[in-house]
Amino acid sequence: MAEGGTGEEMGEQDLAEGQIPITALQEHFSVSFTRMIAYAAGCSIKTHETDFEGVDITIVSSTEYRGFYGPQFELQLKCTYQESLLKDDSMTWKMKAKPFRKLTRAKRYIPAYLGVLLIPREPEPWLHINEYGLYTRSRMFWESADNLRYDGPINDYHTVHLPRRNLFTGEQLLGIMKSIGDAERGLR
């Protein structure tokens, strides 16, 4: 889930205070970030014991829409501090071939999405807390697995592009739920 290093072996610099690997902190932070957005939008989260199916969590609405009651979608989460991945019009992400194929399977029963959380690089804190609230410079970009699908050959990795307009906010989350709940084609 979390990726942000250089691909080298983990060393002492990759451990946070308390000896927790940075990648583990990134995983938990991305889930917590997603939970805050989902809960603030009135949705709930179903967790998965493993991400064997290529997803980390399922986000569920309890709203009745034109086509369905209680739409839901599965979300594969990634986390990075690599600001260089943010381009003018998209966030680029290099996915390993096997997870990419799992996420973009055409026969998925529940729609799937990819979310990449961009966090500040150390030593800047991921959160700022004061008497006025909780703030973070982190932001997540998303894309539907249907829009990521690629039928060409993939060796070890496949680069995907998550449009910058797809900023994971409560408003956009509810828009995803509405498109699924209304059974709108192509916007699943």
Automatic annotation (TrEMBL):
Residues 27-178 form the DUF4365 domain. It comes from Streptomyces pharetrae CZA14. This is DUF4365 domain-containing protein. Pfam families: DUF4365.
